[in-house]
Amino acid sequence: MAGLELLSDQGYRVDGRRAGELRKIQARMGVFAQADGSAYIEQGNTKALAVVYGPHEIRGSRARALPDRALVNCQYSSATFSTGERKRRPHGDRKSCEMGLQLRQTFEAAILTQLHPRSQIDIYVQVLQADGGTYAACVNAATLAVMDAGIPMRDFVCACSAGFVDGTALADLSHVEEAAGGPQLALALLPASGQIALLEMDARLHEDHLEPVLEAAARAARDVHTLLDRVVRQHVREASVLLGD
Amino acid sequence: MLKSKTFLKKTRAGGVMKIVREHYLRDDIGCGTTGCAACGGAHEGPALEPQPQDPASSLCPQPHYLLPDTNVLLHQIDVLEDPAIRNVIVLQTVLQEVRSRSAPVYKRIRDVTNNHEKHFYTFTNEHHRETYVEQEQGENANDRNDRAIRVAAKWYNEHLKKMSAENQLQVIFITNDRKNKEKAVEEGIPAFTCEEYVKSLTANPELIDRLACLSEEGNEIESGKVIFSEHLPLSKLQQGIKSGTYLQGTFRASRENYLEATVWVHGDAEEDKEIILQGLGNLNRAIHEDIVAVELLPRSQWVAPSSVVLHDEGQNEDNMEREEERESILKTAVNEKMLKPTGRVVGIIRRNWRPYCGMLSKSDIKESRRHLFTPADKRIPRIRIETRQASTLEGQRIIVAIDGWPRNSRYPNGHFVKNLGDAGDKETETEVLLLEHDVPHQPFSQAVLSFLPKMPWAITEKDMKYREDLRHLCVCSVDPPGCTDIDDALHCRQLENGNLEVGVHIADVSHFIRPGNALDQESARRGTTVYLCEKRIDMVPELLSSNLCSLRCNVDRLAFSCIWEMNHNAEILKTRFTKSAINSKASLTYAEAQMRIDSTTMNDDITTSLRGLNKLAKILKKRRIEKGALTLSSPEVRFHMDSETHDPIDMQTKELRETNSMVEEFMLLANISVAKKIHEEFSEHALLRKHPAPPPSNYEILVKAAKSKNLEIKTDTAKSLADSLDKAESPTFPYLNTLLRILATRCMMQAVYFCSGMDNDFHHYGLASPIYTHFTSPIRRYADVIVHRLLAVAIGADSTYPELTDKHKLADLCKNLNFRHKMAQYAQRASVAFHTQLFFKSKGIVSEEAYILFVRKNAIVVLIPKYGLEGTVFFEEKDRPKPRLVYDDEIPSLKIEDTVFHIFDKVKVRIMLDSSNLQHQKIRMSLVEPQIPGISTDISDMDINEPERKKKKLQK
């Protein structure tokens, strides 16, 4: 039995994309009225919802408050129906905790936390459908939600995954490509400055190949930025029309 | 760029699971025609010609492209590969179906697609907006694919019409499926079957022979009698294998008996086991190397492996009675203990057919177009082919591919692929044996040669950056005479502290072959240099193998050196590895080196160096043997070639001198030192070589044989084996020890390369070393190149690269190297066998003394020490009264009439070339002494100068 051919000789991937192409991205801001900020994103079949509360007073133990900046609290969960086989626990497992931590690191780097000392910002992200690149979708949704909440940030945080197959770097991996077991890299980028908010990879990849993969992920993240920027401008335009009337 | 989504649902075993996958449809996929305005040439690589100059087809006179469907691609790849067929559109749908159904065909079609001359274009129709089709309700996957192919063909025709109406370009759909063709014609697509199209190519009549004959009507003429039982469908087989009623394994036909085969069942939990299949019906059309499913027969029907040697000699037609009679021969005299699991083939899981070399046996009927083809490999059955050129092909070596094996046919059907040349011709025979052993032997391509260093070449400053200059050392090389690829050189000198410095300098091939380029890929594919009797198939181009890498004397060469400091007891005090530049002072042959060591008058630097090396080598060897290293023996033959005709004029066994073992000893030492170093540095991906200890059952024959001479061979450890072999001497029979060693060699397992991260048994049994690798012959072995690279990284002289540290890639590489080495060995043996034939052809008939190596049920295998030649003496010949044979498996012995033959008995045999069968010329041996009336041949009534008469005599 021949395995799946991830990249054909003609340069097409399993789903018909070329190596550097993203999946179709659709996003909306302000999907919930109750929360301070919210956003919904679809990257291909990966769908994520982000909700932001804050900045507000520290909830629970006051000892957690930071004297010089705001506390960023991130929680990640994924719906039981998000994967092919039904999940047992929607949140609280190891993978969710890790993802929460990564999100926190990412947003601590992007949000201007020193503007809100001794306060807390909550970011809740839920994955409704997982088809690869969940981290990237979460970051992109959360960026929009944080902006919707009006919390000052250094820049957009745009994330994208990248993989490596047969000497070619593939951007924005789908579930099929992730499941094939090659190396996989997740990158969160501040596009204006080109600074990296988070870079994560836990497979073996030779150092010579790292650069092209990183380059592919960064280029894809910039493409994501163009799209998110368009979404934000569209949202602001709509909002100002409503306000103006 | 348009992106749209389609949802595909799939269910998998276990519960039902909904799988949703995205499927993007694009509008930027080009049609592949060069200069198509509509597509804007949005593609690179091979493309279709805008004005195809196709061979004139009487069916379709205007210019056209071909669009074959999956079955045409799978079965008629030989036709498509022909240079006459160009401008073919391969659809993605078709390519993917081919990929899942046959890996070899997929590889071939990819090679063809990459060949720019052929103008094959792969059209990604599944992702094209206008050619994508969705599976309809109640439509199975096959029908959908057929429809997708038709839709694509239709799109192409309309597209081409739009593009240039005046050109009248057409796409012709080629399919062998009648229904599909009818539907296509209905939809207005010009469609033909492959046969119709090929027959219409009036300019290329030879293509018809290459057509695979799949047409049904061809078989109906055959006897209606069904010979074989039906193969079960794959789904049933898989069920059976899961439930344990059938076993899956690799089918291995026997070389000696065409009615017998074994199936290697590779279970994951239990040990590998072997199942015997006997009789045509039970073999059920399986061909050597196929993956088959077998059903075990009840214990009452189990048989023992027969020791009968049988060759399929039936002329042309299906004479089943004879077969049955022959099958009954197999089932005589079975010992209860000898019975082995016996089974029958119920189905074929995967065919492993490849094109086979061989010769045509022309049909007796003059006008017949159907002939039998006899492959050179005896494990492959004869193949029936259809050809009009039988008379030209007669006596030629040809290549034939199998197309199928219907139930009512005694032989498989096939088709002619290629003509190699006259049989018996040295060139042709060499070509055949290279092809049969899958040795890549084409001249190096331009792409490969482009990576060679430019001449004149000299060592530059840059080269010396990580190198030590050792040009002042008195280095010399010792090799067999006529050797042009010198990959090792040695030196030895006294240090000031009284110790000795010994250096082994190996050609630095990895300096010239950089990882990943075409030169590297080609040498990795070849894996090894193949030495045939009159010819060498190089692994690297000649410029490197015989010049820049060869450590010739008095020129500066780059080397990789392994330098030890030793005391006079040959104990290693310090080991050092470095890349270096050397200048060899002398290239000696073994004999010259020996002469220098032995001579009393010579005292120059080279000679003292050699003496020092020799002294140390003796100590090293002694120590190694004490540790339990085996000294084995195998008869090796050397030919003296006529310098002009390249015909062998003399034949003798290879001589061994002290200096041979001197060089060998230091090479072993270097290999072991390097193995330790690279394993220390790269515990997960060091390329090492191991030699597993053989299972005790392998030694049975050796122990039995020794017992018959009242000797005891202990086989529990390598050490005890080595010791008992040393002791096994017989004062009256000095050659016995060598014979025992030859037998012991046959008991051994094959040494193999492996990647240290994938295995945990590193032991080298034969050399009694805990770790071993190959470092010393990078010019002729690719494994050494990798080891050089690893070592260079380990000492910081070179940079690493991705594939080097990937253990899975390394394991794949090892697999290829092991395969190539095995094949090279087989090719070498085949070449020796062929030259032996040439030798005895010129020599005529000779009688020689020989020793019995094995005793079989109807034959003895003998070894002739003088030539190192092994052969089989048959006691049953056709058209002769059968002698009384009594075979005793326990001793083993064979009693013929009143004479008993034991293993190691001395006999006298007559050797002659049997050319009565031009297909398989072979050395025929017959018994001279001891004389058995009616069996042995008498010398006196033979006339040495008349081969014609002799043959008659033998066959009477």
List keywords for this structure.
heterodimer; A: 245 residues; alpha+beta; Ribosomal Protein S5, domain 2; five-stranded mixed sheet; 9 strands; 31% helix; globular; B: 956 residues; Rossmann fold; OB fold (Dihydrolipoamide Acetyltransferase, E2P); 5 domains; six-stranded mixed sheet; 35 strands; 23% strand
Would you give an account of this structure?
Chain A: It is found in: Cytoplasm; Nucleus, Nucleolus; Nucleus, Nucleoplasm. Chain A: InterPro entries: ExoRNase_PH_dom1, ExoRNase_PH_dom2, ExoRNase_PH_dom2_sf, PNPase/RNase_PH_dom_sf, Ribosomal_Su5_D2-typ_SF, RNase_PH. Chain A: Pfam families: RNase_PH (PF01138), RNase_PH_C (PF03725). Chain A: Keywords: Acetylation, Cytoplasm, Exosome, Nucleus, RNA-binding, rRNA processing. Chain A: One of its GO terms (cellular component) is euchromatin. The complex is a heterodimer of chains A (245) and B (956). Helices cover 31% and strands 28% of the residues of chain A. A five-stranded mixed β-sheet of chain A has the order 1-2-3-5-4. In chain A, strands 7-6-8-9 form a four-stranded antiparallel β-sheet, with helices on both faces. In chain A, strand 8 and strand 9 form a beta hairpin. In chain A, helix 1 packs across helix 2. Chain A is globular and about 55 Å long. Chain A starts with 24 loop residues before the first strand and ends with a helix. By secondary structure, chain B is of the alpha+beta class. Helices cover 30% and strands 23% of the residues of chain B. In chain B, the strands form ten sheets. In chain B, strands 16, 17, 18, 19, 22 and 23 form a six-stranded mixed β-sheet that branches. In chain B, helix 21 packs across helix 25. The C terminus of chain B is likely disordered. The chains are: A alpha+beta (245), B alpha+beta (956). At the A-B interface, loops of A face helix 3 and helix 4 of B.
